[in-house]
Amino acid sequence: MVNSARLVTVPLASSPAVVARTWRNPSTSAVLRVKWALILLGMLPLLRLVVGFFTNQLGANPIELITRSTGTWTLVGLAATLSITPLRRLLNWPWLVRLRRTAGLLAFFYVCMHFMTYIWFDRFFDVQDIIKDVIKRPFITVGFAAFLLFIPLAVTSNNAIIKKLGAKLWQRIHYLVYVIAILGVVHYWWLVKKDLTQPIIYACVFAVLFALRIMWKLKSTK
Ligand code: HEM
Predict the structure, then answer these.
(1) 128: CB partners within 8 A, 6+ apart
(2) Is the pTM of this model over 0.85?
(3) Between helices 62-91 and 28-54, what is the axis angle to 10°?
(4) Three-state SS across the chain?
(5) Contact assessment for residue 76 and residue 201, using Cβ atoms and an 8 Å cutoff
(6) Residue of 125, 188, 201 with the most ligand 1 atoms within 8 Å of its CB, for mutation
(7) For residues 218 and 213, what is the distance between their CA atoms, to the nearest angstrom?
(8) 10-63 pLDDT tens trace
(9) Helix-helix angle 100-117:138-155, to 10 degrees
């Protein structure tokens, strides 16, 4: 005989409740797949630049395009990294936190490409010229400061170092990401000559992400 009570409690594989539960608590291998998808997605802008470079499709000024593209993807990577905690809370998907390091390292990868493009193709590794430029042009000074602050974050992004530093010190170091985001927007704002739409959009995105954190912090200390 069929047990009717059991039939009622076993949900259909595709029922909204099951889908919601699966998204809230996916398997380790599913999270790993999402992580790899994020890495592949994060490599697409680089692939576009490499293909464009070798097929002569980067326009009249390829170096400018590469500098702009890598700068833009650094900011997008930063915004994605800072979106993870709010999304985790709003969607109640705790596993999202496991993508934060990958997103942050993708942002770091693009800032390295951005910086390399500058020192290689713009300044031809002329150290004196680079130092002069960093001192002379405020938007370069700010970008350079953001790049330097990025380094400790990348260096401390592995489990062995987190263990060595302790969670509290690690957390403090990683607060630098907020300073980097602000400096990144200031850098962009400063270099734009006419249309400020893009830097304003990034400033608003970061402002919302910061405001959510401040709001939650205030709520938790009440
Ligand atoms: C977190 C660090 C940084 C971020 C987020 C960032 C972001 C950006 C963005 C968004 C752009 C403009 C893209 C566009 O025009 O569409 C840009 C341009 C540029 N950045 Fe950065 N950047 C950073 C660090 C640096 C550093 C370290 C340098 C060099 C020392 C640098 C040099 C430049 C240059 C030369 C341009 C092109 C300016 C122009 O087109 O006139 N940036 N950056």
Answers:
(1) none
(2) yes
(3) 160
(4) CCCHHHHHHCCCCCCHHHHHHHHHCCCHHHHHHHHHHHHHHHHHHHHHHHHHHHCCCCCCCHHHHHHHHHHHHHHHHHHHHHHHHHHHHHHCCHHHHHHHHHHHHHHHHHHHHHHHHHHHHHCCCCHHHHHHHHHHCHHHHHHHHHHHHHHHHHHCCCHHHHHHHCHHHHHHHHCHHHHHHHHHHHHHHHHCCCCCHHHHHHHHHHHHHHHHHHHHHHHHHC
(5) no
(6) 188
(7) 9
(8) 555 578 888 888 888 899 999 999 999 999 999 999 999 999 999 999 999 999
(9) 140
Pocket of ligand 1 (CB under 6 A): 64, 67-68, 71-72, 74-75, 111, 114-115, 118, 122, 140, 143-144, 146-147, 150, 180, 184, 187-188, 191
What tokens appear for 157 in the block?
């992004």
For residue range 129-173, list pLDDT tens digits in order: 999 999 999 999 999 999 999 999 999 999 999 999 999 999 999
Token pair of 217 as six digits: 């912090």
Can you say how many angstroms the Cα of residue 61 is from the centroid of all Cα atoms in its chain?
27
Residues 181/82, Cβ–Cβ less than 8 Å:
yes
Residues in the chain: 222
Q: How many CA atoms lie within 13 A of 124 on its CB side?
A: 0
Distance (angstroms) between ligand 1 centre and the Cα of 70 equals 8
| Residue 139 Cα to ligand 1 middle (Å) | 8
Contact 117, 126 (CB under 8 A): no
